[in-house]
Design brief:
By secondary structure, the protein is an all-alpha fold. It is built from 11 helices and no strands. It has helices spanning about 15-20, 30-45, 55-60, 65-70, 75-100, 105-120, 125-130, 140-160, 170-190, 195-200, 205-220.
Length: about 230
C-alpha cells in the first residue's frame, strides 16, 4: 500500500483500506488488491486465523477465487502483505503523533495513546502479531521488525539529544524492549484476553495510556532521556 487513507486512530485498518479502495485515481487492479486486504482485516476481527479461508476473503472482497490467484499465490502471501502494510501504517501514525506533540513527555503520551487506539481497533491483526502462530511463522519476523524499527527511533531520539554524552546505549535498548513488551502485555490482557481485573481498573484508553506512558518515562529515569 503506497497511500494511507486519512482516518482516526480508533478506526480499524479494514476501514482505512476500504476508504482508500473507494478513493479516486486508482486502477481497477489497485482497488481489488485493497479490497482483498480490507476483507482479511475484517474477517480477522470476527474469527481466528485458523478459520481464515480464501473463499471467505473473496466473498468479502466481492471477487471470484480465480481473480484472487491473479494477485496472490495463497492465503498466507496475502496475510503477509497485509501485516507488512499494517505495521508500516502503525509506525507512520506513531511518528505523526510524536511530530504533532510539543515536548518529550507530551510526545510519549501521544504515541502511547495512538498505539493503544490502534491496538484496540485492530485486535485480530495484533493477536496474530503477538501470538506468533506456528502455522504462520512470518508473523514473528514482522513483529520483531516493527519492534526494532520503533526501538531505533527511540534510541536515535536520545542519541540526538545527548550527542557524545549519550548514556549507555545497550542499557537504553534493554529498557526500551522491556517497556515495549510491558505495553503489549498490558494491552493483550485488556483487549485480547479480556482479563476482568485489568478491565476493572482500565476505564478508557486515555487512562491506560497515561499509566503506560508514565511507567515508560520512569523506566528511563536512570538515563534521564525524558526529563
Amino acid at each position: 500500500m503506497t497511500r494511507a487513507a486519512s482516518a482516526r486512530d480508533d478506526e480499524g485498518f479494514a476501514v482505512r483500506l476500504q476508504a482508500e479502495a473507494e478513493g479516486a485515481g486508482l486502477r481497477k487492479g489497485e482497488r481489488t488488491a485493497l479490497r482483498l486486504r480490507a476483507a482479511v482485516c475484517a474477517l480477522l476481527e470476527a474469527a481466528p486465523l485458523s478459520q481464515l479461508k480464501v473463499q471467505d476473503i473473496c466473498a468479502g472482497a466481492g471477487i471470484s477465487q480465480g481473480t484472487f490467484y491473479l494477485y496472490f499465490p495463497d492465503r498466507d502471501a496475502l496475510l503477509n502483505a497485509v501485516l507488512q502494510d499494517f505495521v508500516a501504517d502503525v509506525r507512520r501514525r506513531m511518528l505523526d503523533a510524536a511530530r504533532d506533540s510539543t515536548g518529550r513527555a507530551a510526545s510519549l503520551q501521544a504515541t502511547t495513546l495512538t498505539y493503544c487506539r490502534i491496538f484496540a481497533a485492530n485486535r485480530g491483526l495484533m493477536k496474530i502479531l503477538l501470538n506468533h502462530y506456528e502455522d504462520f511463522p512470518q508473523a514473528r519476523a514482522i513483529f520483531q521488525g516493527m519492534n526494532r524499527a520503533w526501538i531505533e527511533t527511540v534510541v536515535s531520539s536520545i542519541r540526538r539529544r545527548f550527542g557524545a554524552g549519550m548514556p549507555d546505549e545497550d542499557e537504553i535498548v534493554r529498557r526500551a524492549y522491556a517497556l515495549g513488551g510491558m505495553v503489549d502485555q498490558y494491552l493483550a490482557n485488556l483487549l485480547l484476553a479480556r482479563d476482568e481485573r485489568v478491565a476493572a481498573v482500565s476505564p478508557d484508553l486515555e487512562t491506560v495510556a497515561r499509566t503506560l506512558a508514565e511507567i515508560w518515562r520512569h523506566g528511563f529515569g536512570g538515563q534521564k532521556p525524558w526529563d
